[in-house]
Amino acid sequence: MTVEEDLVPQVDPDAVPSDTLTVLGRVPEGATREEAVAHLAEAARLVRRRDLQMVRAAGLGHIGGEFSVIDVLVTLYLHAMNVTPERLDDPDRDRFILSKGHAAAALYTTLAMAGFLPQDQLRTFMQPLSMLNGHPARTKIAAVEASTGPLGHGLPIAVGTAFAGKLDGSPRRTFVVTGDGELQEGSNWEALMTAGNHGLDHLCVVIDRNRLQQGARVEDTNDLEPLADKLRAFGMEVVEVSGHDHGALLDVFAAVPARSGKPTAVIANTMKGHPISFMSDNVAWHHKVPSADQVDQALAELEAK
Amino acid sequence: MTVEEDLVPQVDPDAVPSDTLTVLGRVPEGATREEAVAHLAEAARLVRRRDLQMVRAAGLGHIGGEFSVIDVLVTLYLHAMNVTPERLDDPDRDRFILSKGHAAAALYTTLAMAGFLPQDQLRTFMQPLSMLNGHPARTKIAAVEASTGPLGHGLPIAVGTAFAGKLDGSPRRTFVVTGDGELQEGSNWEALMTAGNHGLDHLCVVIDRNRLQQGARVEDTNDLEPLADKLRAFGMEVVEVSGHDHGALLDVFAAVPARSGKPTAVIANTMKGHPISFMSDNVAWHHKVPSADQVDQALAELEAK
Amino acid sequence: MSTTTAPAQVLHDCRDAWVATLIELAEADPRIVAVVNDSVGSSKLGPFQDRFGQRLVNVGIAEQDMVGVGAGLANGGKVPFVSAAACFLTARAMEQVKVDAAYSQHHMVLVGQSPGMAYGELGPTHHSIEDLAWLRVIPGLTVIAPCDPIETAQALRWAAAHHGPVFIRVARMGVPDVNAADYEFVPGKAVLLRPGSDVTLAATGTAVHRALDAAALLAAEGIDARVLSVPTISPLDTEAFVAAARETAGIVTAEEALTSGLGGAVAEALATRHPAPMRFIGATTFAPTGSVGWLMEHFGITGTGIAAAAKDLLGR
Amino acid sequence: MSTTTAPAQVLHDCRDAWVATLIELAEADPRIVAVVNDSVGSSKLGPFQDRFGQRLVNVGIAEQDMVGVGAGLANGGKVPFVSAAACFLTARAMEQVKVDAAYSQHHMVLVGQSPGMAYGELGPTHHSIEDLAWLRVIPGLTVIAPCDPIETAQALRWAAAHHGPVFIRVARMGVPDVNAADYEFVPGKAVLLRPGSDVTLAATGTAVHRALDAAALLAAEGIDARVLSVPTISPLDTEAFVAAARETAGIVTAEEALTSGLGGAVAEALATRHPAPMRFIGATTFAPTGSVGWLMEHFGITGTGIAAAAKDLLGR
Ligand SMILES: Cc1ncc(C[n+]2csc(CCOP(=O)(O)OP(=O)(O)O)c2C)c(N)n1
Ligand SMILES: Cc1ncc(C[n+]2csc(CCOP(=O)(O)OP(=O)(O)O)c2C)c(N)n1
Ligand SMILES: [Mg+2]
Ligand SMILES: [Mg+2]
Q1: Reduced 3-state DSSP string for A168-194
Q2: B265 contacts: CB under 8 Å, gap ≥ 6
Q3: What is the pLDDT of residues B60-92, one digit of tens each?
Q4: Which range (A6-15, B116-125, C43-52, C58-67) has the least confidence?
């Protein structure tokens, strides 16, 4: 009945880079909006830098979809959500589920930035027996609320989490991030219908609208437009925002529930690979691994920010 | 590798009623609209009568959803579709798929009315080794295009059939009937998205909108409204019609494709158990089996029509 | 139903024990909720709904959502009993069962209603003959097929307290009381219903009382059959089977399922520990049209069918 | 990849043989189409798309729709090759595989890409260790796991002409050429790669060349191992296994899958015909994090691991 033989991670230090992450932690209480945005911007820059190194070291990752979602993750964990490492057992903590689990490296790095993981554990990413699997596993990491990887699982789970909160009259909010190509999965529409009809207004579905999926543009594969109309017809309160604008994001998340009795769907307009010049909006970077030179150029571009 | 041990049906004549079906066949060529409507009305009355007897004899069936969809089936097979028993191998024949496979008895009776099945075979419905299973099986009956029963399968299959027609430049049309509760299945929304984006305008999705599902009203289970908005947002050309008005139905079906480049979605407003007074719009009759007295009363009501 | 079931026996629909037990558990533990797919009636959950209202989550006809929502309810501190026709719960939501329940190790109970061929004439699309073979191989998932109302109730109580995912079949086809009133279900353990030294009849779920019928028929012919009731398919009680292989001529398995369910599990367990002659009684193809009783006869999942297999194994 | 694979061997990604063969078949038969779930790249179908455009149907990330659309294309006169990562094709669309392909007996080919643990570090959600155990029990579905490029091409050609549903694994983890250039795939037949009288090593897919490595290691220790390559898991070549059980001390099965796949199929087949000692090599749990090569070592699906199991069986 064991799910997995339980063994201790053995990491080959030579196999992984010594690069470390400067842990900024949450936006300080009482920070002005301006200070908060600056804090988030710097945190996002550091998270991208570390993510890049991790993917380079592992020789695996989904850097395009990681860079498109990092600003959302950082804003949620360092500002919007009420969860801290100390509150992980608090039933009223806000919940986060990364439905697009292939962006695991971005989640792990953000969790480390927020203090949920020791930053030096990031060096074990994808190494034998590491807790940092290519897709997040709740049995491996306490801060991971749901195991994801197959697309179209996280949203139904988030609906259940939100439903439990409603039954308990808990103030907690449940945030879930899906990809846009991921919305081709019918399981998401089943979940949206359920959430809408049950008025789960403490649920916030963030769609990483980078307009690219694995092999091509979403519109050239199986188009989602008119996406806002679809979401509204399924009972969502729809908000559009730039997914790379920390100020706009924190305002949107702070406003959840945006409308009493309705779940919020945030269409976060993003770019895959943002802000790296040669990766941005380029489908080739869905899961391409950068060369040493490309890492250097990308790091230089990040420094320049 | 046998799917099913192949054996010959053995029917106990005493177990089934001797009631027969008067086979009217297709609406004659050159019939006026008035004559066509009269032909369809009488055929639907006879089909309902035989369906009632079959369910009574088998002690099983889904009479509510059978009576709600019979007018649509009869209009398709006796008038709208270009398929006849002789044309079953014609690649350009129109295709029909009953996605709500639990209404099998209605399909079998309609197929017999249209000459696709010997009417006396209806006596084997649900009997041991019968080809007339509780859900339609393409391996058992030549005229059945797809095996259905689990909800949410027929529409994706119909999309594939329509796609094949488009690839071949065939004039054939593909009609599929789903239940309304059935649209809670995400597989349907996957299929609608695909059909809409590929402009499958020779596909016609008929929704038997009887507003009831197995256990309750659709709106009290997981509501579909605003249904037309959902369908439009997924790329359908939406038409609403009374699903019991043969004239209105034949006009709608004759007009398919309703709009070049778009699949047609017909919301057929119906009543479960129609037109039987004590069954109509009554959720109890989803799969209830009528008593002898109830059969007599229902037959009397059908005679009166 | 089976020609070999003594007419005197009262047959039970285990769904009655299921709903009574769930209500009992839900009264004691506010965390318990039910999740269904428009299956309130087919799960006989009407009384639960009347009593607990909100605590019955009906997602409509959407099995993937149903299991995912169940996992989320577990994440939110609830103990979900996800109840649907076994065929749809397992086949339609297989990836959710694998990932959201088993791999995630959520405390959730997957309740497969009307399993096997209970839906008779409704055909193979509504039969769940595959569930035991499919689910027993999923790591970390406990798979249980109770044989009567008492065992159904006990298995549900155990699952409510077990911190991991469990799949339980709830039989619809009539079964007599097999276990005594003081019976206690032990997960992973087979139950010796009848000692015997010639041959072993191992059955699960609705086939257990049929194995007892077979033992009676064999006794009349001077064959002393051991009868093992096997409520837990995974993890299997390997020791009980190694002992049976050692102490009797061989093992006949019987189940209202494909023979790769219990039969396959036993064959695999014995192949590495103590290979023994076996015969498999169960479904071997998709079923033709017929009532569940007729289909049980068709596949020989009856006292006479099991007895015949035992005699064939013994070369008698 | 495996320490026991001679470094000299050139290893192939069978997806290359897959796409080359599909293009060859599609040129000869206009009915052939490919159906994918945003898996053009992962299925290496780029060249097919460039060549046949419209005949590649990409439904996006929607596996249920993908298999249903495949069945519909078959109804519409096409011969669909439905190609997706094996884990999603099987788990996510299991009911469509059961009903739309197998029960419906459509002429369609389900192509499971990068099966087993090919996705290594991406974890159990992306591994398809369950597919052989799950699909081999579905009535009417042929299940094939080729061991090299030649067998992959031959199995695809056979399936294109077979009027029924077929599931074929296309291995991504490197494999050497195992079969000769003039090899001819025969459905349902095992291939004797090495005669032997002491013990039988039976393997499928990516484990076949590892079984040959094991035989070499055993030969060095004076153990004469028979090696059976088993491309078809269902229907199984029972006669070949009955002969192996009769003529050798026992059977070790090896597969890049849960041991209930080929291992379970053989155990079930022998239990009724000729029980024999077995050892199972394959996955036994969800995998921890690690590369596919590392995981094959972890589970002992290697020449040394298979050889060790054979010696254990022989009590050496
Ligand atoms: C059920 C399922 N099918 C296929 C895949 C393979 N896959 C991984 S990422 C991806 C593309 C996802 O695109 P999108 O949702 O837009 O994510 P993003 O662009 O943010 O990376 C696909 C098809 C999967 N993980 N799960
Ligand atoms: C996947 C699946 N889940 C559940 C069922 C059980 N079931 C049979 S009919 C039915 C209700 C269908 O309601 P609707 O689609 O509205 O059909 P209608 O009202 O026309 O009978 C249900 C839940 C099924 N057949 N398939
Ligand atoms: Mg995207
Ligand atoms: Mg309805």
Answers
A1: HCCCCCEEEEEECHHHHCHHHHHHHHH
A2: B192, B204, B205, B207, B231, B236, B237, B238, B239
A3: 999 999 999 999 999 999 999 999 999 999 999
A4: A6-15
CB < 8 Å to B158, chain D: 72
Task: State the amino acid at position A142 in one-letter form.
Answer: A
Other C-beta atoms closer than 10 Å to the C-beta of A292 total 8
pTM: 0.97
> In whole angstroms, what is the distance from residue B290 CA to residue B302 CA?
15
DSSP for A50-86, please give it. Answer: HHHHHHHHHT---HHHHHHHHHHHHHIIIII----GG
In tens digits, what is the pLDDT along chain D, a chain of 316 residues? Answer: 344 444 568 999 999 999 999 999 999 999 999 999 999 999 999 999 999 999 999 999 999 999 999 999 999 999 999 999 999 999 999 999 999 999 999 999 999 999 999 999 999 999 999 999 999 999 999 999 999 999 999 999 999 999 999 999 999 999 999 999 999 999 999 999 999 999 999 999 999 999 999 999 999 999 999 999 999 999 999 999 999 999 999 999 999 999 999 999 999 999 999 999 999 999 999 999 999 999 999 999 999 999 999 999 999 9
Report in angstroms the alpha-carbon separations of A115 from A111, A125, A143, B294, C270.
Answer: 6, 17, 10, 70, 50
Backbone angles phi, psi at A233, to 5 degrees: -65, -20
Looking at this protein, which amino acid is placed at residue A250? L
Overall residue count recorded for chain D in this entry: 316
Closest CA to A130 of A5, A9, A4: A9
Is ligand 2 within 6 A of the CB of residue B134? no
CA distance C30 to A251: 36
* E-assigned strand segments in B115-183: 174-179
- Please list, in sequence order, all residues whose beta carbon lies within 8 angstroms of the beta carbon of residue B63, skipping any fewer than 6 positions away: B51, B52, B55, B105, B273, B279, B285, B287, B288, B289, B290
Q: Which tokens is D17 given?
A: 């043989």
Q: Tokens 């809670």 — which residue?
A: B184
For B302, residues 6+ apart whose C-beta sits below 8 A from its C-beta are B45, B48, B49, B52, B275, B276
* Whole-number Å distance between alpha carbons of D246 and D237: 15
Query: Residues 6 or more apart from C50 whose CB is under 8 A from it?
Result: none
Q: Tell me the two tokens of residue B22.
A: 């008067």
CA C61 to ligand 2 centroid distance, Å:
7
Q: Judging by beta carbons within 10 Å of its beta carbon (0-12, 13-18, 19+), is residue B301 exposed, middle or buried?
A: middle
Closest partner residue to A133 (CB to CB) among D62, D64, D289 is: D289
In terms of Cβ atoms closer than 10 Å to its own Cβ (0-12, 13-18, 19+), residue B138 is buried
CB contact under 8 A, B157 and D75: yes
Residues near ion ligand 3 (CB < 5 Å) are: A 179-181, 210, 212
Rounded CA-CA distance D193/B37 in Å is: 70
Mutate to test the pocket of ligand 2, among B133, B187, B214, B221 (most ligand atoms within 8 A of CB): B214
Would strands C191-194 and C225-229 be described as parallel, antiparallel, or unpaired? antiparallel
The residues, ordered by sequence, that sit 6+ positions from A276 with a Cβ below 8 Å of its Cβ are A67, A297, A298, A301, A302
pLDDT tens digits for D267-300?
Answer: 999 999 999 999 999 999 999 999 999 999 999 9
Q: What is the pLDDT of residues C107-123, one digit of tens each?
A: 999 999 999 999 999 99
| Predicted ipTM of the assembly | 0.97
Q: For residue C74, which of A194, A160, D84 has the smallest C-alpha distance?
A: A160
Angle at C19 between CA C15 and CA C22, to 5 degrees: 135
Please write the tens of the pLDDT for every residue from D39-71. Answer: 999 999 999 999 999 999 999 999 999 999 999
From the list C38, C125, C290, the residue facing B149 with the nearest CB is: C125
Q: Dihedral sign, CA of A112, A115, A119, A124? A: negative
Structural contact between residues D176 and D209, judged by C-beta atoms closer than 8 angstroms: yes
